[in-house]
Specification:
The complex is a heterodimer of chains A (152) and B (109). Chain A is mostly helical. Chain A is 80% helix and 0% strand. Chain B has a domain at 70-109. Chain B has helices spanning 2-11, 52-61, 73-104. The chains are: A mainly alpha (152), B mainly alpha (109). At the A-B interface, helix 1, helix 2 and helix 3 of A face helix 1 and helix 3 of B.
Chain lengths: 152, 109
């Protein structure tokens, strides 16, 4: 009978030790899991911040493109005005002042040619960048050729 | 009874959490932007019934064939507007390309 009791006590002790060891292992794993979860939360926060930043960039890019489209549309309207302002007839003017209109046409043509170069990605010259007066600007496309010019 | 309890609790132990991550960045396209245009200037000659003879005479004197491609004043206006439209489209396309490059090809910090 005594042997059974001692055996039972030994088994109980062994079981308890095993259980405590298991609890310690579980605790270690739980701690590791907590660290991983914290890291995952931090990564998610960074991801959300990046998404927010991307969204702001997209909005800004859209805004700038819309502004560009409006400005270019205005350039086109200005060109139309130059031909038809106050019922102006360029044909009749060319008959009356042939040499003068030829000179103006060639000047405007050279400016328009430069506008196409700029539109295709040609860098602006210092003179174009610094132009602020009407006499200095490219009147065919000041919106893209002269960033510092404010129409007056 | 105690031994049985220990065995049973061991069966439902805490499992280690695994988070799988596989991030393979896409290779960059890195295409060069097209070279900006360098255009030649045109010379416009206005010809009217009054100066036609003089214009052709001058051309011959300059050794240029006395022949001209003509536009009416209305067609000249349309040509100017067409070029302005092409220019605007070129500018928009070029800026769009810049925006895409800025957005997708930004240098890693």
């Amino acid at each position: 009978m005594r042997i059974y009791i001692i055996g039972f006590i030994i088994l109980a002790l062994l079981g308890s030790v095993g259980y405590v060891l298991k609890l310690q292992r579980d605790n270690t794993i739980l701690k590791e899991n907590a660290v991983k979860l914290e890291s995952a939360i931090s990564e998610q926060k960074t991801l959300i911040e990046n998404q927010k930043k991307d969204f702001e960039e997209i909005l800004d890019a859209n805004k700038k493109m819309n502004e560009l489209v409006s400005v270019l549309k205005k350039d086109l309207e200005d060109l139309d005005k130059r031909f038809n302002k106050k019922n102006r007839d360029v044909g009749k003017l060319a008959i009356q002042k042939t040499e003068s209109i030829e000179r103006i046409t060639n000047g405007a043509s050279a400016l328009a040619t430069r506008c196409i170069e700029i539109a295709s990605g040609s860098p602006l010259t210092e003179a174009e960048k610094n132009a602020t007066k009407k006499s200095e600007i490219n009147s065919e496309c000041s919106s893209i050729a002269n960033p510092n010019y404010i129409p007056y | 009874m105690l031994i049985l309890t220990i065995f049973l609790t061991s069966c439902s132990g805490v499992k280690q959490l695994s988070i799988f991550k596989e991030e393979v960045p896409r290779a960059k396209l890195n295409l060069e932007k097209p070279t900006p245009l360098e255009l030649e200037n045109l010379r416009w000659i206005i010809i009217t019934s009054a100066n036609a003879e003089e214009v052709f005479k001058k051309l011959e004197e300059q050794g240029i064939d006395p022949v001209l491609w003509g536009l009416t004043d209305k067609d000249f206006e349309l040509l100017a507007k067409n070029f302005a439209r092409i220019r605007n489209q070129l500018k928009i396309t070029n800026d769009l390309l810049d925006k895409y490059k800025e957005y997708y090809e930004v240098e890693e910090e």
